[in-house]
Amino acid sequence: MDTFGVIGPGAVGSVIGESLHNSGYQVTFLGRSAGEVFVERADMQETAAFPVEAVSEVKKAFDYVFITMKGSQLEGIMPYLDQLTHEDTVCILCQNGYGQLDTFPIPNAYQAIVYISGQKKGNVVTHFRDRILILPENAGTKKLKESIAASNLELQLSSDYRYEVWYKLLVNVAINSVTALSRNTALILQDEKIQKLCKRLIREGIDIAAAEGVYFWTEITDEIMHIYAGYPPYMGTSMYYDMINEQEMEVAYIQGYLYQKSKAYNLDTPCLDTVYSLLLASEMKE
Ligand code: NDP
């Protein structure tokens, strides 16, 4: 029977681990230290508890490893990847942003576009909605899909994976930037000036995507603004929470990735350049 490791038992990781565990798969939750993680959601009678093992202590190679900490925390697990993988292990990096795999040491590694909404506070994960991972379609991901077919994790294999990557980047770039920099929730989308700024950030992202050969209809901006309009005003984004909790943000893989591409193609992206500079500046320390 295939074995599964989930490194980073946070909002996304715990929901993936829970899905696999509940369908009888052999799954190990791997965190910074040994303990427990609890998963709760509105329709659940009782909170589910899962044991967590310390990633540094586990000396077992898994067939599949889901890596589910934030992009900014990736460095912390690099020393342990060797002991957690064998030559055929397939790694699924479940993170927002893009570019993380460029320097990844595992050959069979794919990045999933994550549509799982949750939040971790202490050792309790609240799962709000969705269990969807989108991956490129290839032999390794097809095998994974077959392997976890009995779970309620929805693995979508896309033949147009790059479009999906860029779509999520466009969705993230505006809302994450404006909520983090204003240190405020989706409430700010009620302000017309913020709406305009979001639209400009999305349009600049569309131009960068086009330079990369990924094309979007111009209506996509309205579509994404419509998605934002559906967010409850009290909702924060992960970058907003990282900013107010003084934790490192995933700027490098969202705004930073877009910025590097913009510069490489010599594009004019003043809004992106501004938010990226300010986000980096907010993390500067002596
Ligand atoms: P969380 O902060 O909830 O979870 C990250 C987990 O990784 C935490 O449990 C953290 O432990 C653990 N971790 C960090 N460093 C290490 C380490 N060195 N060894 C072992 N465990 C470690 O993050 P999310 O689940 O929210 O986000 C994961 C990714 O998914 C991000 O890229 C995010 O942008 C993306 N995403 C998140 C969504 C969401 O709704 N939450 C939606 C879509 C994408 P500790 O608690 O001790 O810090």
UniProtKB/TrEMBL annotation:
<comment type="function">
    <text>Catalyzes the NADPH-dependent reduction of ketopantoate into pantoic acid.</text>
</comment>
<comment type="similarity">
    <text>Belongs to the ketopantoate reductase family.</text>
</comment>
<comment type="pathway">
    <text>Cofactor biosynthesis; (R)-pantothenate biosynthesis; (R)-pantoate from 3-methyl-2-oxobutanoate: step 2/2.</text>
</comment>
<feature type="domain" description="Ketopantoate reductase N-terminal">
    <location>
        <begin position="5"/>
        <end position="129"/>
    </location>
</feature>
<feature type="domain" description="Ketopantoate reductase C-terminal">
    <location>
        <begin position="161"/>
        <end position="281"/>
    </location>
</feature>
<keyword id="KW-0566">Pantothenate biosynthesis</keyword>
<keyword id="KW-0560">Oxidoreductase</keyword>
<dbReference type="Pfam" id="PF08546">
    <property type="entry name" value="ApbA_C"/>
</dbReference>
<dbReference type="InterPro" id="IPR051402">
    <property type="entry name" value="KPR-Related"/>
</dbReference>
<dbReference type="InterPro" id="IPR036291">
    <property type="entry name" value="NAD(P)-bd_dom_sf"/>
</dbReference>
<dbReference type="Pfam" id="PF02558">
    <property type="entry name" value="ApbA"/>
</dbReference>
<dbReference type="InterPro" id="IPR003710">
    <property type="entry name" value="ApbA"/>
</dbReference>
<dbReference type="InterPro" id="IPR013752">
    <property type="entry name" value="KPA_reductase"/>
</dbReference>
<dbReference type="InterPro" id="IPR013328">
    <property type="entry name" value="6PGD_dom2"/>
</dbReference>
<keyword id="KW-0521">NADP</keyword>
<dbReference type="InterPro" id="IPR013332">
    <property type="entry name" value="KPR_N"/>
</dbReference>
<protein>
    <recommendedName>
        <fullName>2-dehydropantoate 2-reductase</fullName>
        <ecNumber>1.1.1.169</ecNumber>
    </recommendedName>
</protein>
<dbReference type="InterPro" id="IPR008927">
    <property type="entry name" value="6-PGluconate_DH-like_C_sf"/>
</dbReference>
